[in-house]
Amino acid sequence: MVNVDFLHNPIPEPVDLPEEQTSGPQRYFNRELSWLAFNWRVLEEARNPRVPLLERVRFVSISSANLDEFYTVRVAGLRELVMEGHTTPSADGRTPAEQLRLINADARKLMQAQQETWTELRSVLEAERISVVGRKELGKADKAALEEAFLTQVFPVLSPLAIDPAHPFPFIPNEGVSLALQMERGKDGRSLQALLPIPTQVDRFVRLPSSEGEVRFLLLEDLLLLNIGALFPGYKLTGSCMFRVLRDSDLELEEEAEDLVREFETALKRRRRGHVVRLQVSTGAPAELSREICEHLGVIGDEVIEVSGMIGLARLKELVIDERPDLLWPSFSPRVPERVQDHDGDMFSAIRQKDMLLHHPYETFDMVIRFLAQAARDPNVVAIKQTLYRTSHESPIVEALCEAAENGKSVTALVELKARFDEAANIRQSRKLERAGAHVIYGFINYKTHAKISTVVRREGDKLVTYTHYGTGNYHPITARIYTDLSLFTCDDALGRDATKVFNYVGGYAEPERLENLSISPLTLKETLLDSLKAEIGHAEAGKPAMVWAKMNSLIEPDVIDALYEASAAGVRIDLVIRGICGIRPGVKGLSENIRVKSIVGRFLEHSRIVCFGNGHGLPSKKARVYISSADWMGRNLNRRVETLVECTTPTVKAQIVDQIMAANLADVAQSWVLQADGTFVRPDLDAVDKPFNCHRFFMQYPSLSGRGTAGAADVPELTHSHD
């Protein structure tokens, strides 16, 4: 049974479950299946009529790209364990082989649903005069235009490849899409098999000439099939199919690498040739051609997936065209914080006034860039230290650091080479920084440095003042437009000293003896979380209000989940906003009846990490203990990465996080899914709610409190009857 509380979100009635689901491994949800459930929620946005049409197409693309990465990393890892004979179960009690079977079944259903969703959207697009046409629908003018396009834009980059003893089967890279062809020579009937790799450098959708108000496309593979005669003169096509390859993309490094950069360059070359973990082949492929492909790629059984529809749905993002703004999200320009404007754009002056928290993308990430660019040109700045996990190709962050180094400032850049899929880019950035004169360090071999810290040391009078930026997201100006993250700017002496100690720890292995206002993984962060949960249990046992509000991407670490269960059993009310993977089973009598979990999936990607402890006063409360973090509550983040957990003590910053950000996230109805005890997610009946509250829309309308805004809990209608 589901009822509805003051937030209009469906809350499961506490349920009784068998003992093995409350005390054994089944008290946890499986990590991989939970991730697949998240990607189902992403796909559901493509089916949501409240989402603009072209944004729905984008959600299909995102869901497909997400699933590709899941296969190349998570499925590849499980497959490797099975091949090596490992049977050790995961926290939920399932062996790698059992997980693979369940993943395969669910992922196949997801891929089928992606195709069905695209088919439905395609017909809706046609009603809006945006169409993807087939070869049979082309007119004379179309064919003339396509001939020109083929010769000038496609033909020069094609590499037709025969398959015979003299031409062995070519290497197909990860995510490579190819046309496989069966042909017959006209003059003597001689057969030929060939491959036509589809270049990633060319758009998958070819624009056709159209009348005003109409947009038409042809798939690139259809254009290639139209021009087989130009590619293989004298042959006629007797059969064809499309196929796409996904390869194991994990990296294996030597434990004692003498040169970490060189080791990564070698490992990246190995990754390109990783084992195939999934082969998609178009339905109806000629049997002989299909056998040839599978044999040469070394795939069997469940690794082969027949696709009835478009292969490589991630490329649908090309259809999200700017000329139809009526089918996109309404335009939105991030704000420059009023406090920065008060100080004529001077970041140091604004920060000196008091700590400032910016909420991206609603407050522009340009302020982080301005912070570093101003430091690079300020004659009073003597040193800059910066972590870099992921950043953009032409990064203004890296440009500012280079400028600072060239201006004679001491610049230290901690570049994480192990940031998956950004390794090569980070190697390029590190070399660019070194050429400019910056000191580049790479941190630990066994730990990733995922912390987001920037420090600027400035001479002011007769002392040095450290200005520090702590973030929850990457220093990436492009993803910062769509990821929700937090940036804390401070010149607090203690936080500045703590940041310096983190750099010393990663760069020189100098484990900090004492951190004043910061906890870090893998040393103290997990301990701080567990101690804070114990403190809430103490408040509950003392009859005081005991509450926890937390927000993150993923929650899977068993010790933390068990601590949350213990807190729930003691009477602590726990509200969790978990976007993606969640291993906790909420709403179970005697285990988790005081735990509620929701997931928000909407216009922006929820990425910030926050935790608020009522501290014996409930929530929202000015006396709460409030933290922002770079870490999700996963084993890798708490035990095998360098991460930060920063306690926010400035009243306006605390109010912004508790009364504005967390309050609005908990009040959200329009984009929310609520996790049930059986692992399913339930979306509220939006038709039954008058003006369902949308936290993304709220944040776009109201400026942040610490940036001199005024919006708070009173502006969130659904929170006027809070837990108090």
| Radius of gyration of CA atoms, rounded to a whole number | 27 Å
The shape, in one word, is: globular
- Measured by DSSP, the beta-strand proportion falls in 15-25%
Number of helices: 19
Uncertain regions spanning at least 5 consecutive residues: 1-10, 252-260, 718-724
Helix-residue proportion: 25-40%
**Using DSSP, what is the number of strands?**
29
**Average pLDDT:** 90
First and last CA, distance: 25 Å
Largest sheet: 10 strands, mixed
SSE class = alpha/beta
TL;DR of this structure?
By secondary structure, the chain is of the alpha/beta class. A hairpin with a 6-residue loop joins strand 7 (205-208) and strand 8.
Structure description:
It contains 19 helices and 29 strands. Helix 2 packs antiparallel against helix 3 (96-127), helix 11 runs parallel beside helix 12 and helix 12 runs parallel beside helix 13 (423-436). The chain is globular.
Sum up the structure in keywords.
disordered N terminus, 10-stranded mixed sheet, disordered C terminus, globular, 724 residues, 8-stranded mixed sheet, alpha/beta
Give the topology.
Blueprint (H helix, E strand, L loop, with lengths): L1 E3 L5 E3 L18 H16 L6 H31 L12 H32 L2 E4 L6 H15 L6 E2 L14 E9 L5 E8 L6 E4 L6 E5 H7 L1 H4 L3 E13 L12 H13 L3 E7 L4 H11 L6 E4 L30 H5 L4 H7 L2 E5 L5 H12 L3 E8 L7 H11 L3 E6 L7 H14 L2 E3 L6 E2 L3 E8 L2 E9 L11 E8 L2 H16 L9 E4 L3 H17 L5 E6 L5 H12 L3 E6 L16 E6 L4 E2 L2 E5 L11 E5 L5 H5 L1 E8 L2 H17 L4 E4 L5 E2 L12 H7 L23
Helix pairs in contact: 1-2, 1-3, 2-3, 11-12, 12-13, 15-16
